Amino acid sequence: MNSCSKGYRRFLSLLCLCCSVILLSGFGFGFDEPKEGFFVPVKFGDCLEKTVYYGETQAKETISIHAPEMKGEYYLTVKEVLEDGAQVKKGDQIIEFDSSSFYKELESAKNALEVAKADFEKTLFDLKNRMIELDLDVQRKELELAKAKVMVVENSTIISKIDLEKSKLTVKMAEMELKQAQISRQDFENEKKVSLVVKELQVKEAERKMEDQQVKISSAIVLSPGDGMIFKPFVRLNNEKGKVEKNKVVSPGDKLLEIPDLASFQGIIYINPSDTKFVQVQDRVSLFLTAQPDHEFKGFVTTKENYQVTRNERLGKNDPEGTLEENKIVIEITGHDPIFRPGMSFRAEIVSVIASQCLYIPVIAVQKDEQEKSFVWVKKTDGSSEKRTVSPGRSGITFIEIVSGLAKDELVRLDVVIGKEEENEELKD
What we know:
Layout: H1 3-24, E1 39-41, E2 43-59, E3 62-66, E4 76-81, E5 87-88, E6 93-97, H2 100-150, H3 161-219, E7 221-223, E8 228-229, E9 235-237, E10 240-242, E11 249-250, E12 255-260, E13 265-271, E14 284-289, E15 292-304, E16 309-310, H4 311-315, E17 325-333, E18 345-362, E19 367-368, E20 374-379, E21 385-389, E22 391-395, E23 399-404, E24 411-413, H5 420-428
Antiparallel strand pairs: 1-24, 2-13, 2-18, 3-12, 4-6, 4-11, 5-8, 6-7, 9-10, 13-17, 14-15, 14-18, 15-17, 16-17, 18-23, 19-20, 20-21, 22-23
Helix pairs in contact: 2-3
């Protein structure tokens, strides 16, 4: 190995050492400065890990306002909407959708209803006339039958047998014609019912279409369901992420506005799936609002969702960043402060317990040998260092639990010093 490579390795060792000093200075580790590197004591107690994330505040209780569901409508255009932060009372108009097309459809439905009603009346009039004609035809056939029966006189010497047979035949013909007239009238009665049902359905359909348009017109104006302050969340509107604004096209059912309860808030953060092992429910949280960075708010983790969502699903990002998966964490913010509003950004410092009542040391103190066994350099009483095999347990980003191999207050070395054997190998290279 050449001198440049050797110098580079020493530079990395020094850089690691400086980082360790800065990182561990806030955790109460004491440092000695022996002949070979820096040493820190083995600690006993709760092995804690502090992780930092960024998120937004959200009211615990809120009234969500959605775009109205309208039959046959797949897109709605926002005509007017109140500004973010506007104060409203129950019944106040908070959003209005463009309803010009609904009024046109309503006028068309009214015309169609008038036509359907006129058609119904005409059909009813025609059916009544037709029924009168059929009733008269039946009456005529009944009179003709009666007349034919009078002409049949048995054992009469007035008419011949031939005329008698003709009269009987006339009676039979009259009976058949009467029966046919009665059948025709009955068939017409059924036809009349069907025709009227069809026309009535046409009238009802026209009335329904008119009512649908009236409902759409009334639904185009959304009133506040309660008192409070309007908040515009960043949500998916018509399959695009954004906030509701004038002339924005949305889909029925889209969440548009919120009226949050300002009495209690929670924080929402999204973390990398690999960090979920460091964050547990009930972990303590220190929260710092971007708007008030010097004031610490207390809280604790209440929910850790185990399934991941992509940034594309959450934020509508279609770039490579949109494929990143994250887990949602909910933080309960204790206490109340008037400064809190939905959507405020914050920095959250989460203190997690990696292991309770254990021995622990910095992660960078633990190394691996060729057999992948863990070891550390421990300071001896004479000031020299000895290599000792250890059994590590649970690990955080900064600290790691030591199950066996070390005792409380023993000193372990942090820096990576090139030993004589390594130097000899480098010289050979």
